[in-house]
Amino acid sequence: SQQGEEDPQALSIQEGENATMNCSYKTSINNLQWYRQNSGRGLVHLILIRSNEREKHSGRLRVTLDTSKKSSSLLITASRAADTASYFCATVGNTPLVFGKGTRLSVIA
Amino acid sequence: EPEVTQTPSHQVTQMGQEVILRCVPISNHLYFYWYRQILGQKVEFLVSFYNNEISEKSEIFDDQFSVERPDGSNFTLKIRSTKLEDSAMYFCASSGLVQGATDTQYFGPGTRLTVL
Asked: B66, CA 20 to 30 Å: which among A7, A92, B20, B92?
């Protein structure tokens, strides 16, 4: 399975701090995508990083990909209360998205 | 900004009944997907659809499920005879302006299906 698995399962930080979430997967991929899900809501695409990329930025988000270690990290800088959500990595190989269980991020104001 | 829409937002049905979940993908997208998320669990892939046919399906997508693109805009998921374990949030997604199945998938807000 290409399954992405996020770590930690839950993370609680103060507003303004940085939040780092990690994702590990098992097989080769075409790309890896990070999504956010607010409680009971849909999935919002955050960022896609292709297998030949090592780092990508989008606003306060920074994603890294290490294909040798089959891992990725998502860094949210200067976190805000509105960043409170579950964050999922999803890998794409030869099959559609395979999601991990997610990291529940709580940002306390 | 274009977005995927889904109706209804919440569907309650009796076990054994048929339900149809509707989605309007982003126009000009070519690939369409259904996923589901049972409460507290992972998002699971059900089926992908391209060029008016199923391109891939998971083990979950058995004979009780079917998909259809009845016109140029809608994409539907039908569950013929619902079971209690079909209760979940169902997400539609679309992608595919460039590289198809490996491109960014944009998700709708989901339909919460409750089977009683």
From this structure: A92
